[in-house]
Input
Amino acid sequence: MNSGVIVQNPPIVETPRSKLWMPDRVIFTPAALDEPWGQQLYKRMQSFNLPIEELPRNRLTGLRGETPRETYNIAKRTLAVVTAPPSAFKLSPIPPSADWQFHIAEGCPAHCQYCYLAGSLQGPPVIRVFANLPQILANLANYEKPGEAKSFEVSCYTDPLGIEHLTGSLAEAIRYFGTREDGYLRWVSKFDAVDNLLDLPHNGHTRCRVSVNAAPVSGRFEGGTAKVTARLAALRKLALAHSLGGGGYPVGIVIAPIMPGEDWELHYNQLFDQISAALDFDCDLTFELISHRFTPGSKEVLLSWYPNTKLDLDEEKRSVKRNKFGGTKYVYNADIMKVMRRFFEGEIQKRFPQARILYWT
Output
């Protein structure tokens, strides 16, 4: 959908596929191997000829190095198949993204220097995949209300598409929500391997989103991800009708984290040009706009992971925002936020008049 131009038969444009992430080490806990889904995950890992280790106890070991950076490198090359703890079955609201969040995995294979997970998850940033997936999905019905649409975000603690080739868990979640009357799934990714999702019976109950950014941000700070052009090409596939070879999904664009660097309006205009080219047909489209922010804790973790980062983490240039629990967050000042919001909302309304802007933050 762009500038009122209607393309009768928009083709799927093939782009070079991004390299799939493969761990150097796969570990299974005994509890994970006791789960039927854990056994299926074991077979999937075997099919990739990955080195698999069965742990003697339900405790992850061998993930720490001598320095925080070394620990980071070890953990980021490790995939652990575990069971979600009992706390995972008590869902938390996640406004403004969704009514509820749930988790099929924790940790992400990407290397974004502004990583949202820094300070959010405890311990080394190993990628944990949950083997008790059927129980996790079945529990979601407890948070639905008959006749009242409820949305469930699955991307808070992981990039589910980045590990989907190894797990198949995202596809299972999409199939599950395709059977629900009032439950709707939401996921977002910086990867592009979507072909196995195109034929799933989602019944319009899954919104697929990609996270994108201007070239100076994505090129400098988003290591290990698919290129923005590849993400948008993947979203095009997901949005196109089944009759045109696509997935027929509702889709979304998440522009995050927005950073007002040098010539930022020029660079974000170029990003909008790319989005317009990818979605040059009518589709169910939403936008989510998230400015860059950080906490004292996340800054400390990020600097231990990326000691040479050029990411702007100067508290003196920011305003302080406190939540109801006393937590501190550093955000851009009110004047900058107003200018940015006006720009982004104006461009979206001009270029994508039928799209919905879900929120600015």
The chain has eleven helices and 17 strands. The first helix runs from residue 30 to 33.
